[in-house]
## 1
Amino acid sequence: MTTETARIRRLVARGKRFDKVFVILGLMSLMVGVLTLAVLLAGLVHDGAARLDWDFFTRFPSRRAGNAGILSAIVGSTLVMLITALTAIPLGVAAGVYLEEYARRNWLTEIIEINVNNLAGVPSIIYGLLALGLFVYALDFGQSILSAGLTLALLILPVIIVATREAIRAIPSSIREGACALGATRWQMVRDHIIPYSTGGILTGVIIGLARAIGETAPIITIGALTFIAFLPDPPLGAEFPFVSFEWLKSPFTVMPIQMFNWMSRPQAAFQVNAAAAGVVLVVMTLVMNGAAIWLRMRYRKRIKW
Amino acid sequence: MRMIDANTMGTPAVTSGAVPAPALKAEARALDFFYGEVQALRKIDLPVWENRVTALIGPSGCGKSTFLRCFNRMHDIGEGRNRYHGEIVFHPDGVDILHRSVDPIEVRMRIGMVFQKPNPFPKSIFENVAYGLRVRGERSRSAIADRVEAALRDASLWDEVGDRLHDMAFNLSGGQQQRLCIARALATSPELLLFDEPTSALDPNATANIEDLINRLKEKVSILIVTHNMQQAARVSDYTAFMYLGELVEFGDTNVVFTNPKKRQTEDYITGRFG
Ligand SMILES: Nc1ncnc2c1ncn2[C@@H]1O[C@H](COP(=O)(O)OP(=O)(O)O)[C@@H](O)[C@H]1O
Ligand SMILES: [Mg+2]
């Protein structure tokens, strides 16, 4: 073996040592995140298992821990999410489409863009303050499901806008040119191509946004969600004319994280069990939503590959 | 096949001589084009004859695509710092399609385009071909179905896909996708069809198919095709325009341009001395 070969082998061996070191470091860093979550979830399940039964989901909160349930919190969270989705999706998608397809590149657009990105970083409690002044008092929506839904919609709007824009940017320019060459107007292009082809990405953003919103506590407390709600909002459909009712929008409410927070702040151990059980439900809801986002992304990626 | 006396066609912007000529479909007159401050086309004069194939050849970067895209105002999309000077007169109406008062969408309604890389929409075969009709507000299902079938037949694709119109277009081979794009353009009965190197992404077999197709299509539509394959220009075109550095160097009957070019640059290019 020449000395040159030996030298090169040493060099390669030294380089490979760093590979091994990095693999170990990387795995350890990964474990810190994954294991912490796993341990946390396992702890919650362990603590809350005693209460995770059907009754827990069908009962209102109660002064007696063993009787208390999360019915009003689940219904509240669901309705608030419904309002959030119904307002944030059209607004976010429209804003994203406008910025990508219609807005001219100039300083005004630039400023808007920077602001959208900054909005994503504003602490959520600030949204709560804004909503308290705007929705609760100025618009007189009260401390209601409507106010809460709109607040969280503002909170996740930047997420949806960014997701929409990224999904739109992934559409190759050749597709736009193809549609354009056939005489499509901008609106036809958006309606027939841009939105359909970016639906996967948009939905992913929407779900990630909602998964974030469902766990938000600070802004909801700020606008005055109650911690003890022993009734359900008016049903949206009634037997008498006019059959539909929007009273539920104005109803006081509670949501999952607030219910959980309320139980955690009680001194009795039995309520800690309730808090852990509610925590499990909340984490599972978030994980399911994130799972749905991943599934959607894969499904659409399989269907549309550029 | 050649119906025009070569001698009358030797220079740019020919007006027809004594020999009966086909009608003019379009005509570029002193066309300049600028990408922002950069001038990409200089004083181009070129006739496009009806039911004939006109080929644009020239080395890469000489402005062939830029010129072609003027015809359907493709340069108008995107951020608008592109400028045209001069005219492209579209016949028989005699409108200048580059004029400010003419809406680019109106132009694209009459002039179709097929691109270098097949670019079908991620929709079904049927929806791809039907799209231009839908854009034009066609509602009748049966009318759309008829037009789709006719366009696919014209594009020699019907035999291959007629029984699976609702499959995704992405599942077709490259050559089939390009013929689908041709069918898509044909479905709206354009008066002029622009091709930008339509076979450069295809294998020789698919290329031959498309060349055959172009030869047959000119009965229905006038064709302007960019190619940097000179054999292809010789095979498919009736007239050839040689471009160099944004200028039109020579225009004439394809036979003449290839066998007896008038300009030195043309000769160098077709004999492979550069480009
Ligand atoms: N979008 C653009 N912006 C600026 N310059 C461009 C653009 N597209 C093409 N060009 C330039 O214009 C010239 C002609 O390009 P092109 O028409 O694509 O040539 P060809 O199709 O003959 O290869 C080239 O020098 C190219 O760099
Ligand atoms: Mg080109």
## 2
Amino acid sequence: MTTPATTQVGGPLDQGPPAEPRIGSRNRTGDKIFSGTATAAGITILVTLAGIAAFLLYEGFPALVAAPEDVPGGEGFWPYVQPLLFGTVLAAVIALIIAAPLSIGIALFISHYAPRKIAAPLGYLVDLLAAVPSVVYGLWGIFFLAPQLVPVFQWLENTLGFLPFFEGPTSATGRTMLTAGIVLAVMILPIMSGVNREVFLQTPRLQEEAALALGATRSEMIRMTVLPFARSGMVSGAMLGLGRALGETLAVALVLSPAAVISFNLIGSTNSSTIAANIALNFPESSGLAVNTLIATGLVLFTLTFVVNFIARAVVARRKDFSGANA
Amino acid sequence: MAKRIDVKDLDIYYGSFRAVEGVTMSIEPRSITALIGPSGCGKSTFLRSLNRMHEVIPGARVSGSVILDGQDLYGAGVDPVSVRRHVGMVFQRPNPFPTMSIYENVVAGMRLNGRGTRKAAMDEVVEGALQGANLWNEVKDRLDRPGSSLSGGQQQRLCIARAIAVKPDVLLMDEPCSALDPISTLAIEDLMDQLKKDYTIVIVTHNMQQAARVSDRTGFFNIAGTGQPGKLIEMDETSTMFSTPSNQATEDYISGRFG
Amino acid sequence: MTTTTTPTDLTAAEASLSQGRLPRWSTPATVAAVVVLGALAILVLDAPVPLVVGLGVLALLVALPALAWVVEGRRRANDRMWTVLVTIAFALALLPLLSLMITVTQNGLARFDWEFLTTDMRGVLGEGGGALHAIVGTLIITGLATVISVPVGIMTAVYLVEYGRGRLARAITLLVDVMTGIPSIVAGLFAFALFSIFFGPSVRFGIGGAVALSVLMIPVVVRSVEEMLKLVPNELREASYALGVSQWRTIVRVVLPTAAAGIATGVTLAIARVIGETAPLLIITGSTNILNTDPVDGRMSSLPIFTYYSYTIPGVPPEFGVERAWAAALTLFLIVMLLNLVARVLSRIFGSPTSR
Ligand SMILES: Nc1ncnc2c1ncn2[C@@H]1O[C@H](COP(=O)(O)OP(=O)(O)OP(=O)(O)O)[C@@H](O)[C@H]1O
Ligand SMILES: [Mg+2]
């Protein structure tokens, strides 16, 4: 940060009002430069976003127009990206299905159930989950979670095997789509529960007391006032979580053992990869058109998350005085 | 319906702060009891302790007893939820549930008890409660509109309808008219006069004329200074309180306001 | 006056204020019983942990409301069930955190030693070696990203709070929010696409990683600084204007210093957020075995990348690589937790309102 050269205005605050209004050109110029810099910084954001789209398009374009047999997989770009897109959405949706109810529970616990004094530290603990690097999640997923889940998957196959999701045969390592989804769910819990917590706490106290005074129990009060009030906030929280899950790379890259398939089997050893994981796994060894292809898949991912996030934010923006960004 | 309340040696706390000290009073059934006193003397706090809404605030507690027709509200094994079912409350600012229609607002309390599943029975209760709250004629054609679409005075009467729809024994009102214009205020005062045939009503008000107009008995709360607990100074027939109060502080307060 | 239309009469249970109530110890006792049974199942029967946890949760979910139903009635049972559900949801969130901490510490301590912190991987095939190059790389890359992001972030926040009106400001606000959701791998691809235009398709260097991380870091900085600036009371600004101080001097001398502690907290959290990023660095900084301190010349390792490759390409025999991966994960974990702690302490000391 730049400290301005203190030329004539020593300590402006303790000097008292100047004898005449200071309309000197000095300050005008200073103001102009400063506000110009600030505006430029703001515009940098727009330029960066536009730049991301532009450069990805520029570098990804060759793959979009290349002859199908030159694209990795030999069938062209869209056949290449389809199973990846499928895997991306599948993993994210699994994560969302797991995380949505949990995040509501966590947020309610902190906002309406936990004793006031420990509520803030508890919220902080949940936020810590967001700070854990994804590569650490990946290792944890492989070495701790996956082996623990194998018997559960086995059980799912035996009892619910008639559903396509649990068809089996169960992966012996536990490194499956469902495992990846669970890891992703843990990773998006903090942002989702953070948004939910914030909207739950905004429920007007007067509404809550009205419900209690009618003889509602705590859960009835929550269903009468808190949840209806928070509906749009919860939707946008879920969208934000979905956006994160779609774009998460390393945890999935480490946990999944991928193949280029479209399969609804969540517990088998053949799983679709996700766009992000596929890029991470293949980029370092790629060259030529393969690089362009990966960048083009990145563009697809960027578009997808942009749309999801945009919707989430637009829903949030409709609520006044609310920001979900600090979760 | 309409039960009597006997309060005995009630101390009310926010954490370690004692907000109200040593209140003993009797509240007669089928009558209106007004509570007056300077700001911060604990009127709202006391009122909220009569249906155990006080303990909703973290760290808040009471000692002493509040007897509702022989049952101690703070006795062992008493469920605050059923206490509130018997002792209804109307708040200073109207607070209908914004996501519910007028109709749903009125039946909200009944739905909790799992009754009123029969549409015809519910319709009947809604009409009864809204007529009881003098609101029926104004809203009967738009029962499915949101409760928040009404004017402030109508909203407050909707809240009264919501409270009486569950047929409580007692109705507590904390400055129910302070957010309303004179016409709505009069409407609610008339309403209280009708309601006292069936209910025990306790009302907190800053408006001396209102206390004098509507209440049968009046209690005066006062506070010695900031940080001190509020106390019940005097309680008597309203006519006595406003003509010949026995306590100097009461007289000062009442005449100060009247003067 | 028709208040007395068909009074829906109270049932006997409702008429009394004191229905049956469970004693206070009933809940802790039930929980304790389930926990003991679960522990026995794991220790004695060697049952799989997730299965036991799942069944335990189910047991509580059934037992507590059922007990309440019998003694206290349907509504209370429902209320209990919500309490159990909500509490279990919270406990389930803490479970992975706890398990992460234990797993990382247990596995990481084996190689978390002096050699690990002070040597690089030059010529190491099996045993030994360290992450010095990765630690230094992480510090350089994150440091550069901070140098880029903090001024841009602060100035953008200043624009939004102090100057921004109208459509441009609204667009920037929305896009900053959208930018917080950009996948980290896309940020890496962006940096690669940008620099490969100038330096060719094999471009790999530290500064590229810093640019990629900045894309992720700037929106976080903007958001937190914006919030801090909004908390500076308007009276302060007006007092300063009333003295004839120009707007920019007011911002630099009054507004920013007032918000300084909050800004420091926000920046620290932003650093913590990007320091563990792996995906963008995988693409634009690559990986190397030796110490490289020049961010504009060649591949540069970093802790997350080191962790990743130590696991995926562990060398022969693989145990040593995997041990190094865990040690690096532990190092990273400690750095991130330390940064979070610093942020908390900062906001506690200066009483900034981030610590709600
Ligand atoms: N939630 C609370 N936490 C702590 N103290 C409180 C709380 N609510 C009220 N108090 C304190 O309790 C005392 C009594 O407050 P109360 O609201 O009952 O006064 P009141 O007589 O209703 O005043 P008013 O006429 O202004 O409504 C006051 O000193 C107040 O500061
Ligand atoms: Mg009050």
